[in-house]
Automatic annotation (TrEMBL):
Belongs to the HAM1 NTPase family. This is dITP/XTP pyrophosphatase. It comes from Streptococcus criceti HS-6. GO terms for cellular component: cytosol. It holds the Pfam family Ham1p_like. Pyrophosphatase that catalyzes the hydrolysis of nucleoside triphosphates to their monophosphate derivatives, with a high preference for the non-canonical purine nucleotides XTP (xanthosine triphosphate), dITP (deoxyinosine triphosphate) and ITP. Seems to function as a house-cleaning enzyme that removes non-canonical purine nucleotides from the nucleotide pool, thus preventing their incorporation into DNA/RNA and avoiding chromosomal lesions.
Length: 323
C-alpha cells in the first residue's frame, strides 16, 4: 500500500484520493450519493485493497470514475480503459468488457443497442485533418473525456471540403458539418490564420494562400514583409493569430469556440521552430518570435492552445446536452 495522494481538479470537478485497505467515496461538496459508483468500481478490485476518495466538487460521473480508474491502474498495474458509449460509461480490459455504468434514469434498449453490431465499442470523434501531429494532440485531450480519436487518413474515400467561407467560423463549419453529415460521426474542424491590423485583418482566412496559388511558407512570409515595408514602428505592426474550432454531429447544434494570440510582425524572420508565419510573429512584448519558442512554450499560450483549453471546458456539457 502506497502513501501517494492522488488529485484531479478542473473548473467543475475536484477529487482527492488515497489507496487504502477499504473502499469509500465521500462527498464533501454536496448531497449526491456515490454508493453505486463505489460498489461498481470496487467489484473490479475485489480482495485487492481499495480506494478512499473525497469529492470536493462534482459535475460528471465519467470524470470521477476516470479518476478512480487511473488510481486502480497505477496501484495494481492494470490496464483498464474507460469510455463513453451511447449515454452509458463502459470499462474494458483488453478485449474484455468489465463494467457498464448506466445513468440514473437508465437507457432504452434501442438507444444502447442501435447499430451496435456495426460499430466498434466506444464513442469517437473525427478530426477533420490529415495531419497526424495535430491528431496526436487532440487524441490525448479527448482521451480524458472517454472518446477515441481518428482523422481523415482513416477515411480515404471522403472528398476534400473546399474552404469557400469568408470567415474562420464559416470555413470551420463547412468542414465539420459537411463531414459529419457524410460520415454520421461527431467531427471537429478548425480554421486558423494571421490577422494584421495595418492590413485590415489580412491575410485572415487566406493566410495559407496569401502569396497566390503556389503559396508556401517562405513566399507568404516574403509577401507579408513586402506589404508592411512602409510600416516602420513596431507598435503599428500589431497582429493576432486566430483559431476557430467547431464540433459538429448530425442532428445537433454545433459547438463553436474561438481564441486569439496577440503580438506584432517582426522586421525579419527569426527562429527555427514552428511553421507558417511563426518566424515573423513577435509574441507580445517578449522580443521573441513564435518560431523561437519550444513546442511546450508555444502550446501553453498559442491561439490553438487557448482555443483547445476553452473547448475542453465546455465540451462535456455540450456532449451531455446533445446526447
Amino acid at each position: 500500500m502506497t502513501d501517494k495522494i492522488y488529485e484531479y481538479k478542473d473548473d467543475q470537478n475536484w477529487f482527492v484520493g488515497k489507496w487504502r485497505d477499504f473502499t469509500n467515496i465521500y462527498n464533501l461538496g454536496g448531497e449526491k450519493n456515490f454508493f453505486q459508483i463505489e460498489q461498481e468500481l470496487a467489484s473490479l478490485i475485489s480482495g485487492k485493497q481499495g480506494f478512499d476518495v473525497s469529492v470536493l466538487r462534482y459535475s460528471s460521473d465519467f470524470r470521477l470514475m476516470a479518476f478512480i480508474i487511473d488510481m486502480i491502474n497505477e496501484e495494481l498495474d492494470l490496464h483498464l480503459e474507460i469510455k463513453r458509449y451511447r449515454g452509458a460509461i463502459i470499462i474494458t480490459e483488453g478485449e474484455l468488457l468489465r463494467l457498464v455504468h448506466l445513468p440514473e434514469q437508465g437507457l432504452t434498449l434501442d438507444d444502447f443497442f442501435a447499430q451496435g453490431a456495426k460499430q466498434s465499442l466506444g464513442d469517437r470523434i473525427l478530426i477533420a485533418t490529415r495531419n497526424d501531429g495535430k491528431t496526436k494532440e487532440f487524441r490525448q485531450m479527448f482521451k480524458n473525456l472517454g472518446l477515441e480519436v481518428e482523422n481523415l487518413n482513416d477515411h480515404p474515400d471522403l472528398p476534400e471540403v473546399e474552404e469557400t467561407g469568408t470567415t474562420f467560423e464559416e470555413n470551420a463549419r463547412l468542414k465539420a458539418e459537411t463531414i459529419a453529415q457524410l460520415t454520421g460521426q461527431m467531427v471537429l474542424a478548425d480554421d486558423s490564420g494571421l490577422k494584421v491590423d495595418a492590413l485590415g485583418g489580412l491575410p485572415g482566412v487566406w493566410s495559407a494562400r496569401f502569396s497566390g496559388p503556389d503559396a508556401d511558407d517562405e513566399k507568404n512570409n516574403a509577401k507579408l514583409l513586402h506589404e508592411l515595408a512602409m510600416v516602420f514602428e513596431e507598435k503599428d505592426r500589431s497582429a493576432q493569430f486566430h483559431t476557430t474550432l467547431v464540433v459538429a454531429a448530425p442532428g445537433r447544434e454545433s459547438l463553436v469556440v474561438e481564441a486569439d494570440w496577440p503580438g506584432y510582425i517582426a522586421f525579419e524572420a527569426k527562429g527555427e521552430n514552428g511553421f507558417g508565419y511563426d518566424p515573423l510573429f513577435l509574441v507580445g512584448k517578449t522580443g521573441r518570435t513564435a518560431a523561437q519558442l519550444t513546442a511546450e512554450e508555444k502550446n501553453a499560450q498559442s491561439h490553438r492552445g487557448l482555443a483547445v483549453k476553452k473547448l475542453m471546458e465546455v465540451f462535456p456539457a455540450w456532449q451531455q446536452k446533445q446526447s
